[in-house]
Amino acid sequence: MTFLGLPIGLAPMSAKAPATVLPTSPVLGPSVTPKVIESYLRAVPPVDEVGAAERAAALSTRSVKRESKLAALDLAVRMCDLTTLEGRDTPGKIVQLASKAARPDPTDPTIPPAAALCVYPNLVPHAVRALAGSGVGVASVATYFPSGQAPLEVKLAEAAWAASEGADEIDMVIDRGAFLAGDCLKVYEEIAAVGEACRPACLKVILETGELGGFDNVRRASMLAMAAGADFIKTSTGKVSPAATLPVTLVMLEAIRDFYAASGRAVGIKPAGGISTAKQAVRYLVMLSETLGAAWLTPSRFRFGASSLLNDLLMQIRWVREGRYQSPDYFTED
Known about the structure:
By secondary structure, this protein is an alpha/beta fold. It has a single domain (47-327), classed as TIM Barrel (Alpha-Beta Barrel). It is built from twelve helices and ten strands. It has helices at 34-42, 49-59, 66-78, 91-102, 124-131, 152-164, 176-180, 184-198, 215-227, 246-263, 278-292, 309-322, and strands at residues 2-3, 6-7, 80-83, 116-119, 137-142, 169-173, 202-206, 232-234, 268-270, 304-306. The protein has an eight-stranded parallel β-sheet. It has a two-stranded antiparallel sheet with strand order 1-2. α2 packs across α10 (246-263). The longest helix has 18 residues, at 246-263. The two termini are 28 Å apart.
């Protein structure tokens, strides 16, 4: 199967194994100090904000032919982290969403499963039981989501507990207050420590780009998270506006490209928050393809943080195949 002339990853993702084995310090050397971090981040080039916005806008106008569109929609389904992060979440709701993640359209066995179900730590055991044998991963937010404002010991305990209960992936939040105050060593050390605490789970690091104050900080935070051992970098918690946008995601994609060129370590990306339509999802995939190429067109390196996207993807697949729209009433609610 191809998208924009490039092959797309069809193998199921292995969430517990990072793309490559992480050395002790892939780019910063054996001793990481404030001076080393400062030097590393000073070398990160600034972002041309106007250019990034124009590039993202230009890529979003790319037309996708019918065959490629169907492949893109299928791929987007497989890249979805079906997500529920509400205080009123119940075990029953988790079981329902697990069924949805495993069989997005019960009437159509050709529709692939989602990549993962993302829940709060307390609900991880319910998700693990409901998804056993399905091939769908279990992701858990952690480290005092969404603020990240808690002692490190609390963050480590939460991440370690979720992993010990069967979470394949941990979505941690960085301490934005520390980053904005210039304490980047603290941010680095917390990411590295959480990664050690939750292994072998995949570590996704949420930057909360809407709170970082500009593209230059998004790029610097991306490079810092990757140097600290992130398997994925993620735009947002979905609790802050703005969340994921095409220009911000482009800045992060280019950071991944540069980090890979410098270190040889491939890192994934997860835009989350505000992506609710198939048209938006295809635009993100076009930008991914143009920036990082075929090697990233796989759920093991790209995810959508989605709560309402999946049903629109299902409706669009039905339209491409049959030439007619199906009512949303024919699909289960997320």
